[in-house]
Design goal:
By secondary structure, the chain is an all-beta fold. Helices cover 0% and strands 73% of the residues. It is built from no helices and 16 strands. The protein has a 16-stranded antiparallel beta sheet that branches. The termini are far apart. The relative contact order is 0.09. The model has no long low-confidence stretch (mean pLDDT 91).
Length: 180
């Protein structure tokens, strides 16, 4: 799948994504199982609300594989975006995920631009337990607004039936700390 006319883009309501964007999808039966592979390549891209550009990305790439997609799906995915400008200017951002729909591992990192750029990295396990979604934050560190930031203890967030519960969050920010 490729956008044939990058100038007109993909529209939904007042929002439009324009620029060259290629998406390759491969469906392959393997050992009585279905494997799905996806590759994404694009850029420069522009996200507009009406006539106003909200976000620009100079390059976007990614891939994903889902094995045994129908019976017992297991996936791995990665996305990288470079040269992001909008509410913030970001040199690059990366997200990876692997696991199953019931339990996955997600990592994310990004860095700003300039002489002393902000940077942040995080890792978490996400799981579905009964009717709740649980996020265990194992890693959070970096530098924001000139201050070092790091997770000083594991944190858990649980969301269920419209309620959000946060336990054990401990952050060291510069010389101070935050606990919740």
């Amino acid at each position: 799948i490729a956008s044939q006319d990058p100038a007109s883009g993909i529209r939904w309501g007042e929002t439009a994504l324009s620029g060259p964007l290629n998406l390759d999808v491969l469906l392959a039966p393997e050992r009585a199982q279905q494997t799905v592979g996806v590759r994404l390549q694009g850029g420069p891209l522009s996200l507009r609300l009406g006539a106003a550009e909200q976000l620009a990305i100079s390059g976007l790439s990614g891939s994903a594989t889902v094995e045994d997609a129908i019976a017992h799906p297991r996936f791995e995915a990665r996305v990288q975006a470079d040269g992001i400008s909008g509410p913030a200017t970001i040199a690059g951002a990366r997200v990876t995920a692997d696991g199953t729909p019931e339990r996955m591992r997600v990592t994310a990192s990004g860095e700003g631009q300039g002489a002393a750029p902000d940077r942040l990295a995080a890792a978490a396990s996400i799981s579905r337990v009964a009717d709740a979604l649980r996020v265990d934050l194992d890693r959070l560190d970096g530098r924001l607004a000139g201050e070092d930031i790091r997770r000083s203890q594991p944190a858990r967030s649980t969301s269920s039936a419209g309620l959000l519960k946060l336990e054990g969050l401990g952050l060291a920010i510069g010389t101070g700390s935050l606990a919740a």
